[in-house]
Design brief:
single chain; Arc Repressor Mutant, subunit A; alpha+beta; two-stranded antiparallel sheet; WH_DNA-bd_sf; ScpB_csome_segregation; elongated; cell cycle
Length: 186
């Protein structure tokens, strides 16, 4: 088979995580009903690795956790992280923003505390904020059941361009003297 490396390249590209040599062999043998020699496959993988080692390409073939994966070269990590940060900014729902604000101002805080303030279940919002690494688990409360405590993360600080929680805008009084209805009684 002349173009085995193209099939291997496609398998590695299509895999969401590192693909092991055994998986590559299984897929090739199942697709072509042919027993491939492992050295033949290893040689093809090495050719692919050399192909992507060119300075003119932004990705490379890397062996990770006993598998192969295409990854962006290190020199592009800064620009890629900016893209990921920008995309994560766009995807915060209103519920997630409300949950994040409560955690930021009340930290360390339990999920129950957040739910009492919001009045709704916050499981999904907290999970999404943890996935986006905007909040982190800071410990466990000393109260009954030892619930998890949440606080903001370093990424939260970067995301909002602050150095400490003290730099968050102060909550202002909602009521003002000129916003009263009726006459004031003495």
């Amino acid at each position: 088979m002349d173009n085995i490396s193209e099939y291997i390249e496609a398998l590695i590209f299509a895999s969401e995580q590192g693909i092991r040599m055994e998986e590559i062999l299984y897929c090739l043998q199942a697709a072509f009903d042919h027993d491939f020699d492992i050295t033949e496959v290893e040689t093809a993988v090495e050719l692919i690795r050399k192909k992507y080692s060119s300075d003119h390409l932004a990705i490379e073939l890397v062996r990770v956790n006993n598998g192969y994966q295409f990854l962006t070269k290190k020199k592009y990590h800064q620009v890629i992280s900016l893209l990921q940060l920008q995309r994560s900014k766009k995807k915060l729902s209103q519920a997630a923003l409300e949950t994040l604000a409560i955690i930021a101002y009340k930290q360390p805080v339990t999920k129950l505390d957040v739910e009492q303030i919001r009045g709704v279940n916050c499981d999904y919002s907290i999970q999404k904020l943890l996935e986006k690494e905007l909040i982190a688990i800071t410990g466990k409360s000393d109260t009954v059941g030892k619930p998890i405590l949440y606080g903001t993360s370093n990424l939260f600080m970067d995301y909002f361009g602050i150095n400490s929680i003290d730099e968050l805008p102060q909550l202002k009084e909602v009521t003002q003297s000129d916003n009263t209805i009726g006459e004031a009684s003495e």
